[in-house]
């Protein structure tokens, strides 16, 4: 049992180990690196014993920089509080760990200056690849990074940035939602989305909604954005006569939460006065009324696939760009019973 304090342990160097084991510093380096087989059993045993007695902990970052490999993957997210981002991040981190990589996550809080600073920070960490889930307003910096390392986009495109992309099949998701609502007897559908800020997935969902509604003559479709006037807009929708039973289609979990709050404020009978279907499948969906019908995104698979795309590029794959669009899963609950109530 040695009596080195934690502070002393943190100051133990490779040279200290070499002197304690009475070997060269190069031998210690071989022992903790990939050349241990070059050492005799006796020297390896002495080094191992000295490391244990001194409490030496190799600086893997320094060793990685020396070899040109840090095994660090960067991930840039727009809003770390968004349940979607958290779930995808978990998928990325799990896949990283399975392949011996560590994940460095930077949150921009949807702030352009934060995004710029974080891109510089990630570069300083010598990351080997980058996964991006932001608006990508700093295109020049992203282009420069992309010249140095592989880059994968998640859920949103960045204009003029040619990169692999992983996300949801938004047109298929919208089609699934409208088909379900029409089958359940709803005829007047209101899409609720967050305000437009350039997020490509948000734009795709609204565009697909307009296209798909036009292809379904039995349905009438309109759209509103979340914000301070949401309750007033919902009241107007509910009070205006339409072609039949009404339903909300919330374009993500944040829109679903805002809409649920507004409906409660309006004292609606959930979900008798209006039906509701929402993208994402958050933990609280089953707890509202008779439960919110969801289009669940395979977030873990999306995150893992983003890393796998990155790993293939790191291993030298220079093939055509990949776009992986995942289909959602319909999870039926009481919010869309419609005429079957």
From TrEMBL:
One Pfam family cited in the UniProt record for this chain: Peripla_BP_1
Keywords of this entry: DNA-binding, Transcription, Transcription regulation
SMART domains per UniProt: HTH_LACI (SM00354)
Any GO molecular function: transcription cis-regulatory region binding
Organism domain of life: Bacteria
HTH lacI-type domain: residues covered: 12-67
PANTHER family: LACI-RELATED TRANSCRIPTIONAL REPRESSOR, RIBOSE OPERON REPRESSOR
Protein known as: Transcriptional regulator, LacI family
């Amino acid at each position: 049992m040695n009596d080195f304090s934690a502070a002393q342990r943190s100051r133990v160097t490779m040279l200290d180990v070499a002197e304690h084991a009475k070997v060269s510093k190069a031998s210690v380096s071989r022992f903790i690196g990939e050349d241990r087989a070059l050492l005799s059993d006796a020297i390896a045993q002495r080094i191992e014993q000295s490391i244990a007695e001194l409490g030496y902990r190799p600086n893997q970052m320094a060793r990685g920089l020396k070899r040109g490999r840090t095994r660090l993957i960067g991930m840039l997210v727009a809003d770390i509080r968004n349940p979607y981002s958290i779930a995808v991040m978990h998928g990325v981190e799990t896949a990283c760990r399975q392949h011996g990589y560590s994940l460095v996550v930077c949150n921009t809080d949807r702030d352009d200056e934060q995004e710029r600073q974080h891109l510089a920070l990630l570069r300083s960490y010598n990351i080997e690849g980058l996964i991006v889930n932001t608006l990508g307003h700093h295109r020049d910096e992203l282009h420069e990074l992309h010249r140095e390392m592989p880059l994968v986009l998640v859920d949103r495109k960045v204009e003029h940035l040619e990169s692999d992309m992983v996300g949801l099949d938004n047109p298929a998701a919208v089609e699934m939602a409208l088909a379900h609502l029409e089958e359940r007897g709803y005829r007047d559908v209101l899409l609720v989305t967050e305000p437009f800020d350039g997020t490509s997935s948000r734009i795709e969902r609204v565009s697909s909604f307009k296209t798909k509604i036009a292809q379904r003559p039995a349905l009438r479709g309109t759209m509103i954005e979340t914000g301070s006037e949401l309750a007033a807009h919902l009241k107007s929708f509910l009070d205006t006569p339409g072609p039949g039973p009404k339903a909300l289609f919330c374009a993500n979990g944040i829109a679903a939460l805002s809409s649920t709050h507004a409906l409660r404020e309006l004292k609606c009978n959930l979900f008798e006065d209006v039906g509701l279907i929402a993208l994402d499948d958050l933990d609280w969906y089953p707890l509202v009324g008779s439960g919110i019908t969801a289009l669940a995104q395979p977030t873990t698979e999306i995150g893992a696939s983003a890393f796998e795309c990155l790993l293939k590029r790191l291993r030298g794959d220079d093939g055509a760009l990949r776009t992986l669009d995942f289909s959602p899963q319909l999870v039926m609950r009481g919010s869309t019973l419609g005429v079957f109530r």
